[in-house]
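pasting for ref
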Amino acid sequence: MQKFLELDARFSQEVRVAERPGALRTAMAVLAHSGDSWFCLLALGLLYFFGPPVWHPLEVSMSIGIVVTAIVVLLIKFTVRRQRPEGDWGGIYRSTDPHSFPSGHAARAMMLAVLAFASAPPELGVLVLIWAFMVASARVMMGVHYLSDVLAGMLLGALMGVLIHAL
């Protein structure tokens, strides 16, 4: 297990761009924040109030999914207690949630992608899935998660999406 964790940490450090100024860093910072729960809930709320009523059931199930997934992620984080990678970027995450496993952003994004595939036109599902992979990648590239954190988060998010859709 120690060798796996060392490899995970080394790979995560090699792809990191948080300390390198430039367009890639800026794009990854925006993507990393785009998976914030408050941002997703705000976007879903705006869509609910200003979008067509046909989307209301999906928007409600996605909102419920965000809350339920956050609770499950926090329970796992406070059980595992894996510390985030060292770094300066993402101070808000580091101060409010010092634990990295699993990635809540990756779980949330993948859960939304599964629900989009289950309840929306396939094109929307594909777009949300691409966004989910980009959010997960950005979290590693910005140095707030290890690769294994986001992989576990995406698996958890897929499971949560299936369960929420089934309910």
